[in-house]
Amino acid sequence: MTTRNRKPLMTLYSDVQCPFSHQTRIVVQEKQIDCQIVDLVDGHWPEEVASANPYAQGPTLFDRDIVIFHSRIIMEYLDER
């Protein structure tokens, strides 16, 4: 059986200068969660992320059909998962 390079189901959009994004990245690393992390530059959010996150700040997590954009809720979700 061969294993192919799989794209992670979760994608975390994270602003490198945001402390809330940093907290979320730490949880992903500590729990060794298979998650693609995309660094965002303030003011240059992809349209998909900007439309999903009404606050246009902090981390935004996409997991299949779920979108979460508050750092504490993201961390709780990752803990439960």
Q: Give the beta-strand count.
A: 4
First-residue to last-residue Cα separation = 27 Å
Silhouette: globular
What is the CA-atom radius of gyration, in angstroms? 13 Å
Biggest sheet strand order reads 2-1-3-4
The number of helical elements comes to 3
Low-confidence stretches: none
Percent of sequence in beta strands: 15-25%
* H-E string: EHEHEEH
Report the structural category: alpha+beta
Could you describe the largest sheet, including whether it forms a barrel?
Answer: 4 strands, mixed
How much helix is in the residues? 25-40%
Mean pLDDT: 87
How are the secondary structure elements laid out?
Layout lengths: L9 E6 L3 H12 L4 E6 L6 H6 L7 E4 L2 E3 L2 H10 L1
Parallel strand pairs: 1-2
Antiparallel strand pairs: 1-3, 3-4
Helix pairs in contact: 1-3
Summary, kept brief:
With 81 residues, the chain is α+β, with helices and mostly antiparallel strands. It has helices at 19-30, 47-52, 71-80, and strands at residues 10-15, 35-40, 60-63, 66-68.
